[in-house]
Amino acid sequence: MTFLKGQKENEWSGASEGQLKGNVRLLIQMAWPPHPHSQLRLPSLEQKPCSYVTFRKVPPLDKLIQKIGPSGHSALKMVIQFIKSCDVSGPAGSALPDLTALATFVQSSFLSLPADAHFAVIDLVRVAFADPRVSGFFAEEQDHKTLMTLLSRVDDLSNCPYNQQLVMTQLMCNLFTSPLYPEQIISHGKLCETCIKLATTSLHDSHSSLRAAATSLVYNLGLFNHNERLQERSDKLPECDQVEVVASLLEAIRTETESVENLRGLLLSLGLLVHCAPVDGEVADLCRAVEATGIVAEKSKIKTLAGEPLLKEIGQELLGKGLVRP
After folding, report:
1. Closest among 189, 210, 183 to 198, alpha carbons compared
2. Spatial CB neighbours of 104, under 8 Å, sequence gap ≥ 6
3. How far apart, in whole angstroms, are the C-alpha atoms of residue 212 and residue 215?
4. Where are the chain's structural domains?
5. Which pLDDT tens digit goes with each residue over 199-247?
6. What are the pLDDT digits (tens) for 11-20?
């Protein structure tokens, strides 16, 4: 006998393996009917992308040391030595610096440093976080005090220098080097709020490199939520946050007229958030209300962007066919 939602669904007898498999398969489909998007041709999303975008490039350390100046702390010197060691021997052959000392220094002294030193400290932490051992250590820190101290520099984005906003956005991307951090970002209210604010604001900055970093951060958030949605059949990122990010992505797509690479990142990020979302949910409703299909279709009229394959896959297939209510 099989049961569905507490009620008897079917009963049969015999020793037919084929009948057993068929009945169980039918029961599963009735309990979890396939999403309408499963019938669409979406190769970029069906492959379940799993690689996050990170920023591992090591800056000129001598220049950073000069920016830090006499305020340089032993904890920072250990981080610099760690970065140099990784550059020579690779992460596997490099001993971790004293991360507790680094956390103590940032929490107690970072905000009192000269303004020019803030960029250098954030950039050093960014490179250190490219090592999953480092990002994993701070993912387990209570209340994420170290990261929140660094993020306080971007609380007022209107007065935050461009270079600090850029490296902070890149640092947030490097949190995804640890499998522990994505869940922490989304479950910690203030951290999630700050992360989304940083990403959505930076998507519309006049500097192309900052827009690209913001696109990477949105992509990482969307990728984590998308894969959790497919595995667990539920979202991790609250729907209200998804709506805010999708609205910002659509506006960024609307205004993008030059970089096909940035357009590709925006479209893929949008696809991750829309793919297999509830057809009658707020994300789908927003896309229908602002005519997202038309926003994407307009990019095909721009010569430098017209050849991007995702314009058809995301624009016509996912947003066009995929938003039709059953």
Report:
1. 210
2. 75
3. 5
4. 1-33
5. 999 999 999 999 999 999 999 999 999 999 988 778 999 999 999 999 9
6. 888 888 988 8
